[in-house]
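Quick note —
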Amino acid sequence: MNRLRWALTLCLALGLPGAAVAATEPVLRVGMVAGSPPCSYREAGVWRGLAVDLWNRVATLEQLPYVVSEWPSVRQMLEANREGRLDVAVGCINVSPDRLRRYRFSLPFQEDGLAVMVVKSRLDLGRSFLAALLTPTLLQLLGGYLLAIAGLTWLTLRLEARTHPATDGRRNSLRHISKVFQVLATGPGSNTIVATTRGNGIVILAYLVRIVSASLLVGYLTVNVAGEIQGKATGAIRSPADLRGLRVGVRAGTVSEALLKELNATSSGAKVTIVPVASIGTGGEQLAARRIDALLGDNLQLSYLLLQEEAKGFLPSLALEGIRPESQAFAYAPALPEATTNRIDQAISALKRSGVVSELRQQATTRGNPQGR
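Predicted structure written out below.
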């Protein structure tokens, strides 16, 4: 950065064309944190992500020259920004009440909450599926269907007794009853068990019973069993308080870590074991290896990770979403001129209004997007 300023000063001294314009526009010191896809990360040495792309568009729109430096955590970047070692901190930075008292923020460009990711093996999901099938409601539906078919079987036998009399004693009679029951329950072969108009009416009624029962069973399996499996897949986590007693991965210096520390401070019982992770991707790997029980992070980041990881042999899912939604923005240094911050805020506002921010968010969370490679 010093070399760049020295070069601009030299150009101005030599009277080179355009040097005056370049020299009047200060070079902004911009900080970014890697390992936070899809907001900010490095790929093949190039910065990518939703926040990075948004900043590039703002800088291009306002013709703001800048240099980028990488920081190990959001907390360290914000402190450097507050101390004046950075001009702008770029990322999906949550504007929490505590941060709002300490730092200076740009116009928010989106709102997001926290989420909890857990993982289950295919064997665990298989067990959950079997357990969900053996529920009283499903057994009642099946029992009601079989009872209705049994009633229609008895009625058919009464009406068709003269046409299909039982022969050779009780054994053949039971065989005949089972045949009628099977035909009414499954459908094929109805022409072999009835020969009267009333009998055909019973066959049609049995058909309607099968259709209605099948619809009820499919609806139950689609809604109730699927929901039951999802609930079992996410374990017993129904609120942030359920994280107590678990090993939870979290990035250092984030709002997520602050939430876990708050849970531990307000609990007299089991504590959350806070496991620092270098990046969201690393947290996903630790979750798959069962070195942690859950991963806590921004909803957007974990949704992105969900798309990337669900094809790698394990089945992650979001147990909780939308925890403590907060605005997200860039952070300004206290000494950054108001004229510059106003230009940045106006550019963010214009990009939000034109739909660019929504487009960048959609691209960042779409499978197959170049950012997600």
